[in-house]
Every structure is written in structure tokens, then in C-alpha cells.
Amino acid sequence: MAAIIEAVNLRKTYRTGRIAVPALRGVSFAVERGEFVSIVGPSGSGKSTLFYVLGGLTRADSGSVTIDGVDFTQLSDAARTRMRKSKIGFVFQKFNLLPTLDARSNINVAVDIAGGNGGRDVAHFNRIVDLLGIRQRLDHRPSELSGGEQQRVALARALINRPAIVLADEPTGNLDTKNSEIVLAMLRHSNQELGQTVLMITHNPAAANYGDRVIHVRDGEIVAADNDPQWQTGQ
Questions:
Q1: I want to staple 93 with a disulfide (CB 3.0 to 4.6 A). Which of 18, 88, 135, 173 is the partner?
Q2: Nearest to 89 by CA among 64, 71, 67, 61
């Protein structure tokens, strides 16, 4: 099966004055269409930088990212934005909901931005909100929702346009156990039942195990794949 995401020798260094802090040190891997891949690592390992580079939200210093056969790194900013709208759904740890809109509008804003008609697909909308258990909260603004409810709304927003790829950055980082299980189960459902490719960034090994495959990163490098015992013992 062909790769839908391919990263080749990604390097990224942040600079503060004369201090250079490498975030990615030659990261290479591929994700096949329909896979659920977890990237796990401690804080400061470079996994969030990798998320932003893969999603076209920031540029690597060198290397390439190919999304569905297109070299993302060679596109103009406008072309990358169009590709994100059509191919990728994002789930962020901090939810990023619009505070003046209710949950229903926050979900459908993704449709408006993409210029599609997914919001008019009532059956699809209903299926997502029912699976996430947020139907009774659709008329509430983010300030009236719990953290778990906000993340479920954010996940619905990411899925509403049926993106080929779902990129999730620490989607359970601010959630309790119950809401974490709901969000992870929905990501798994979107992968298995809707055929979406899921790439999840997490520091939590238990969450990572929801994926088909686990990639471990540390200090900006891939250090192991799947359940390598050296990673789990910290050696």
C-alpha cells in the first residue's frame, strides 16, 4: 500500500540569540494510507515540532514532506493552505475553539473555511456528534463546556469534512480518563470505519497503544519503533 505521508530527513533548529536548539535531527518515516500511527516521546523530544512540520504549519530547515503524492515542502504558502483544507483535519491539545460561536457553529466553521458542503450532510453530522456524545451541548459556547466536551467538539470539527488524514497533537493531554477514552475511541473509529489515516502525537504510552504502530522519538530523532523494551526502560 502506498504511503500517504512520507517524511525524509527532516531537520529543524530553533534559535534564541546565539543559542541553537535542534528540534528535529534527520527524521524519516512513512505512514501508509489507512494506518493509525502513534508518535510518542517525552516533553522536548521534538514530536510537536514534527506535528507542525507534517501539517504544513511551519517549515523544516531541510528535508521533505510528501502528502498524498505531493511534496508539501515545495508548495507556496497559499497552495499549502489549500492542501491542508482539502486533505488534513487537525486536533490540537488546546482545542482552539472560537469563543463567540456555539459548538454547532464551531464544528461547521471547518466546512465554511474549506468551501465545501459537508455541513449540509445532516446524516454525517449527526453520526459524528452522536458518537462523541455532544448532541445536547451543540447550542453551548466553549466557556459553557467542560474540557472534555470542548475536545470532543474540536474532534468533530476535524472530522466533519472527511479529511484523508487526521493529525492529532496530544488530543488527550488535558483530559480525564473517561474523556480520553472517548476521544481515542473516536479516532480509532474514524480510522477503522471511515478509512481515515490517523497520525497521533502523544507523551502517553497507553494512548499510543491505540495505534497500529508506535514510533518513539527522543531528542529530535526516531529511537525505536513499535514496543521496543529499551524505550520503556528508558535505556
A1: 173
A2: 67
Report residue 234's pLDDT band, with 50, 70 and 90 as the boundaries: very low
Give the CATH number for residue 166.
Answer: 3.40.50.300
Smallest CA-to-CA distance from 212 within 200, 228, 229, 194 is with 200
Please report whether residue 107 resides in a domain.
no
Examine the pLDDT at 153 and tell me if it is beyond 80.
yes
Half-sphere exposure in the Cβ direction for 26 (13 Å, CA)? 1
In a domain, 134, yes or no: no
Note whether residue 17 is domain-resident: yes
pLDDT of residue 227: 46
Count structural domains, the chain.
1
Domain that holds residue 166: 3-97+162-232
Query: Where in 73-162 does DSSP place strands (E)?
Result: 88-91
Quote the pLDDT of residue 110: 83
